[in-house]
Amino acid sequence: MSDLAAARARYVASIARREAITSPRLLEALAAVPREAFLGKGPWRIKSEAARLYRLTPSADPVHLYDNVLVAIDARRRLDTGLPSLWAHFIDVLDIKERDRVVQIGCGLGYFSAVLSRMVGPKGRVMAIECDERLARRAASFLHAYPNVEVVHGDGREQIRESADVIIIHAGFSHPHPLWLEALRPRGRLLVPLTQRDREGAALKITRKGEGKRKGFEAKAVQQIRIYPGQGRGMTALDDRVADWWQRASALAPLRFRGIEQGLPSDG
């Protein structure tokens, strides 16, 4: 086994142990997708989950990427790739199956889009939406070998064109957008980070329950998170209070509601 293959095997095993991953499809996808194929040429600026400052990898050998580290996409904006263990945990919680249709909002450079592509298989689909035009172009180039992935440059609050089994948001918002809820198929799942202006908050899993007039939603807090703010995320004290309300309410018990009005859950 080469050094790179051994490093990738350790990387997958470490994430599986740390997050108690239950999906074999997810572990197979993590083992198959080369992380280095979704980044520029090294050396790379990386940092651990707790670190405040980046460090440069000793060389451009991709073996340095197979650790649970953030990799800078744009260090000036503090825009990084997702932490592998965190997003593996979220993807595992969403119970993604073969043939599922997945919408990913904030795909960055496309690494997790490729992981999702492998999980849903050739008869599934992934729509990867990215608001940054330059990142969207790079992701489309990196994902050329994944024919079941469509990369869309646009606003994730507007670009969902059809229903989805899973919607996963890779950016912070103050509340779930009504369009995301309406796009969920019966038993569909949404993962959305709800954060304050300091980027701190909690990720919620929202599941669609029932159909027709009995349609509703159930929200549960999954995990605390710190994440880059999404395009269109409000930046007022009121937006912070709305995000805080969702976090507190969903942490106490499953939160059931039928829709969203002015950012808060409604029974109407």
Would you mind describing this structure in some detail?
α1 packs across α3 and α2 packs across α4 (111-120). It is built from 7 helices and 14 strands. The protein is globular and about 55 Å long. Strands 7-6-5-8-9-10-11-12 form an 8-stranded mixed β-sheet, sandwiched between helices. It has a 4-stranded antiparallel β-sheet with strand order 2-1-3-4, with no helix packed on it. It is 29% helix and 28% strand.
Which short descriptors sum up this protein?
eight-stranded mixed beta sheet; alpha/beta; 14 strands; 28% strand; globular; single chain; four-stranded antiparallel beta sheet; 268 residues; 7 helices
Q: Order of strands side by side in the largest beta sheet?
A: 7-6-5-8-9-10-11-12
Helix content: 25-40%
Q: Helical stretch count?
A: 7
Average pLDDT level: 92
Summarize the biggest pleated sheet: 8 strands, mixed
Q: What is the number of strand segments?
A: 14
Determine Rg (CA atoms, Å).
Answer: 18 Å
Strand composition percent: 25-35%
How does the helix and strand content classify structurally? alpha/beta
Element-by-element helix/strand order? HHEEEEHEHEHEEHEEEHEEE
| N-to-C span | 59 Å
Task: Give the overall form.
Answer: globular
Show unreliable segments: none
How would the blueprint of this fold be written?
Elements: H1 3-19, H2 24-32, E1 45-47, E2 55-56, E3 70-74, E4 79-80, H3 84-93, E5 101-105, H4 111-120, E6 125-130, H5 133-142, E7 149-153, E8 164-169, H6 178-183, E9 184-195, E10 200-209, E11 216-226, H7 237-252, E12 255-257, E13 259-261, E14 264-266
Parallel strand pairs: 5-6, 5-8, 6-7, 8-9
Antiparallel strand pairs: 1-2, 1-3, 3-4, 9-10, 10-11, 11-12, 13-14
Helix pairs in contact: 1-3, 2-4
